[in-house]
Amino acid sequence: MGCWFSKKGQPVEEEQVEEAPKEYSWDKRKKEDKSKFYVRDVENIENSVCRNDVKDLPMTIENCKSCIIFLNGLCKEVTIDNCQDMKIITFASGSVYIRDSSNVELVTICGQLRTRDCRSMRLYLHCPTQPVIETTQKVTTYPLPIDFESIEEIVSDFGRSKFLNNWADIHDFGPVDHAGEPNWAPGTDVEIALKDVFDEFNDTFDSSPRLSLERTIFPQVAYPYPSAAEVKDEMVFALFAGEKSEDLATNCYYRVTGTLKKAKLIRSTAGKLSPLSLPTRAQKSLQLSEGSQIVILIFEGQLLATEISSEAEPGCSFFAFGDEARTEYDNFFNTSAFGNHNL
């Protein structure tokens, strides 16, 4: 008879099972395409770049020359390195850094702007903080009149007041030119200079939004800002406070300058401050807590209180007219610690 058992002392072969290779945490990481964070080595106008996939991304534009770059969306931050003879439109919730670049025209909305080792630039800015330039020469700065299809979404995501723009308050780290020429100066020809930029963008990118400065989302005011004594017509000092301050100020601005067309905006600012910095009468009428958001608009023109009474929401707004407006204007901008600060 056969036996189902192996003979005593005879080794039994065991089936070999292959072990799966160990998997570590770094093996599970998604392989990310890092090229989406860059625009690199682009040269000549026919190779210009328009991208619509940059929202919330940190972007770098580097080693580009003689072309146009349009990043359509609110980036996280933007770095521009070693670029020459460029026109760039980009928007960043954080900072825009420009380094080692020359002959650049930059259109931007950004939380902060810094340059280093740059020369010959035109900067069209909406920046709520003080821009900083270092070892940078021949810069012309402008406010930013701009309108296109998705600009309202970009400004809403940006989350800062449209009435606070420090385009003409540049902090220059130097060095100063030995010939005495200033490193930067505010421009006065924005409507001519920026129209040429927008026209070239529109001609280059057939499928991109049409850029325009005719109906700008950002209010435009003349610079330098006048003192109260220099304002020849009547003045209105309008202050809006609290969570609805931006909306109230926006409605007032469009009513006064658009619907009524009886006055022009000559200065504006926004930020957060102590109630003690407010006009005395405003302290009594506003329901204000420490750190409340404030928007201030200064109008010049024949504007009656009854014409903007619909904007005077109790506890959230304050208006002064005539001589009182002039006093509050000078007191606030000359002596207040409010300043031009980030929201």
UniProtKB/TrEMBL annotation:
* Residues in C-CAP/cofactor C-like domain copies: 21-175
Q: What is this protein called?
A: Oidioi.mRNA.OKI2018_I69.PAR.g12427.t1.cds
Q: Which UniProt keywords apply?
A: Nucleotide-binding
Recorded hits in InterPro entries, A to Z, give: C-CAP_CF_C-like, CAP/MinC_C, CAP_C_sf, CARP_motif, Tubulin-bd_cofactor_C_dom, XRP2
Q: Which family does it belong to?
A: Belongs to the TBCC family.
Is this entry keyworded Nucleotide-binding?
yes
